[in-house]
Amino acid sequence: MASSGADTPLMRQYNEIKSQHQDAILLFRLGDFYEMFFEDAKVASKILDIALTSRDKKSKNPVPLCGVPHHAVTGYISKLLNEGCKVALCEQIEDPKDAKGIVKREVVRVISPGMQTDAEGLEATETNSLVALFAKKDEFGLAWIDVAGGSFYIATFKDLIAAEAELWKLSPREVIVPEGLEGKAFERWIQLYSVTHSGLRVERLADWVYEKAPQKLAERFQVGTLHGFGLENKGVGVAAAWGLLHYTEGVNRSPLPHLYPPVAHEVDRFLQLDPATESSLEIFRNQNLSESNHTLFDALNETETAMGARQLKVWLRFPLRDVQGISERLDVVEELLEGVSLRESLQKEFEHVYDLERLIGRVAGARANARDLVALRSTLWRADRIHTLLTSAKAKKLQDLRQDIIPDASLLNRLEKALLDDPPFSTREGRMIREGFSPELDSLRQGAQGNKGWIAELERKERERTGISSLKVSYNRVFGYYIEITKSNLSKVPENYHRKQTLVNAERFVTPELKERENWILSAEEKIYALEHELFEKLRSEVSHQMREIQALGKAMADLDVFCSLARVAGRSKYCRPTLHDGDELSIQGGRHPVVEKYAQDEPFVPNDVTLDRQSQQLIILTGPNMAGKSTIVRQLGLICLMAQIGSFVPADEARIGLVDRIYTRVGASDDLVGGRSTFMVEMSETANILRSATDRSLVLLDEIGRGTSTFDGLSLAWAVAEDLHDRVQARTIFATHYHEITDLARTKSRVKNMNVMVKEWDGKIVFLHTLAQGAVNRSYGIEVAKLAGIPFSVVERAREILKNLEKSELDATGAPVLAMEAQKAPKKDQLELFRRMGDDMLEELNRTDLDCLSPREALDLLYEWRNRFRKKT
Length: 874
Hints:
7-stranded mixed β-sheet; alpha/beta
């Protein structure tokens, strides 16, 4: 750092503190502002879009400087975290009035992107996961924490692709890796992920941190072995978990008391979705809008609480593969669907329920204020009402939830007696504790009330003594207590009045008696504030001792909120209860796309029937024109299966679903410019992953395989992929294609069936029926769709000519259309040439003109007009 401008006692203090937090932007408290200096100021000013100035501008080496107001710092911190910065918050830890020299300061909190827990800056419906990675040979370990909520998971993988898929689900803002991971497989993931998540922060820990990880993790949770957590045989996952704890508790500078013991995340217990599938099914992000609206989550989310919305996302990311577990969830949805009165009563209660998961995180971190505890009190009171409402619940899962939603009556009673209904945000300004809670506090307050009476009596006496009827005794926080007299009455001011402040129309005075009383009053107020703060901290500590019970209650209420949401959506949208089984039959009668049906209000959704099994109809070759709805039908089958396995009713008349272990989709075209992969390479990479990973329990949904290369190459690849899925993988598959030749597979493969999306031709146009039918079609109607899209009339007509030639196989020896060769010769001045030279506008007009409705005179006028326009063009 520079000298000169920086060589002052204050800057020396700053430099000493900054040296201990070199990887963080240091927010240094100076009065009402947090200041940043040197390189921190340069970086922060750009991110925060605030002015960059300097300290000691006249110095040879002025110090770069920027600052933000202390009362708005949370928003600025969030912006820094979103850009991947770590932040160290440095506060004044003594009153400037008591300081001898420089006010003492120290860092009271360090925040990294994955450690953010404040409500402001965190999406209410998003889980902020901090993830650690570890790899050893061909084993890959993941550990992740939701610091705000306290959940802690460990998973191990033999397959890097599966590990990467799990990472994408978690969408971390910060990852912890060992230094020795350089050059290993995860590095590629970090690089690719950083492109789409610009705020990703990567923290690297020394390799020695991971030594004896199992013993250290066991000691941290005060157990002799990790077997009780189900973590045996998860060495790489345990190593990642210890690295994660080492980092988080180092940043926090103390253990995280609300953190649950680690749980083994068994991937095989859940239906797996890779990133391509999650994207193409638009579960959380709309591909066109890159937003959360018009998605499956958006269609199903009618939760009333933020923790309920987050829990719905967890269910969608991790659908179950257990028939009994799914059935228990469906039982709850069915009971709440039929019990409209119960559901509506529950949802009214949830409207007033606060985010317990994040609230208890603030309590654990000693950052909760009195308003947080009032919110907790209100939520516990609502929980008691919800517990009563569930008295007659029949579904097993509902009964279990009722047992978890039992607030501690003594805690609720104590919070009710202790806290006022509308306390301030600060815990050091008083006005938090109810009268009657603390005799000592009541006594101090009574003394303060006596002071108010004393002030009123002083004002009365001074008015009588001076004869000034407008005399006022008042107080403000800057000047303290004073006697105010208008300028017209200054001649009557007694000698013992000492001038304190001059205003435009008045003067303010103080007397020795008033000054003495002011000191006494302020001392009493300080005692009141200090005692209220002490009482509040004890109360917050009492709440923290019941942290686990409150967390369990919050989790149960989040689940119940999700169930109510699913039941409400099912009732409004007329969904049916699916039947889940361990067989391979997948039969959907009257299936609809849940998102398209909800948001496409222009015309009613046309339902369709689909059946897949491994005996007679394992692979459907789906043909039909563009715009007919093939992609919608393909996606809706995946969404219905996904919804069923989270325990939701589904958009269908009837649904029988043999459990699916994985859903794979290959829909649409996209490239990866940063990764150096073309559209076709991306397509082939995703297809390769499907062929490697899919099983006979998987659902594979493919749309337009092979379209990114030459016709014969693409057709050959599509054919071979379809054969492999049928013969070797034997996954239930829908294969949508415009390669009509592939429909011939049904002649030689017994479990391949052809289906098509029907259209009708009428008056030279096509009408999309959006209905599935048996059999194949041999036309794609691409030219008709191009015409609908607005392709110029001349181009459309030329395309029709070329199509006729190609369909007649009129090719020369090189494979080029004969028509193309003829076009190189001198054109004949025939009628066709005349129309080609007319121009698109005249041809369009001719196409629109109804000749049968023209009188002879109108036809002749139109012909003259065209001739004149043609002459101008030529």
